[in-house]
Amino acid sequence: MRKWYKIVDLVKGDVKTLFHGLNGSRVLPLQVWMQAEMKPVSDGGTIYTSGWHIIPSLEECIKYLEKFQNKDPKAVVLCYAKNVWPKAHSPSNIYLSEHLYIKKIVWTHEDGLQ
Known about the structure:
By secondary structure, the chain is mostly beta strands. Helix content is 6%, strand content 45%. It has one domain (3-111): ADP-ribosylation fold (Alpha-Beta Barrel), CATH 3.20.170.
């Protein structure tokens, strides 16, 4: 199965989603398959089907972190995904998936941006 990477908030040791929660919580479990809530959403104009935001490589995730103005501590997690598709109209190499399995944290804000 292909490896993917996801940017997350890292708060007091908890891996959390950046924006939307899962079952009423932003905390994401490790090593458990999760299913995204599939619904139409908008990113300020473009309507697309929601899903887990994932990126193909660790290097792209670290580069993408430069775009964040929210300075909450960040981490990158290694993931596996099922039912993956490109995010429509994204200027970056972002994909969405219906199912996500977070294997482990592979980079934290303490490692610093390269």
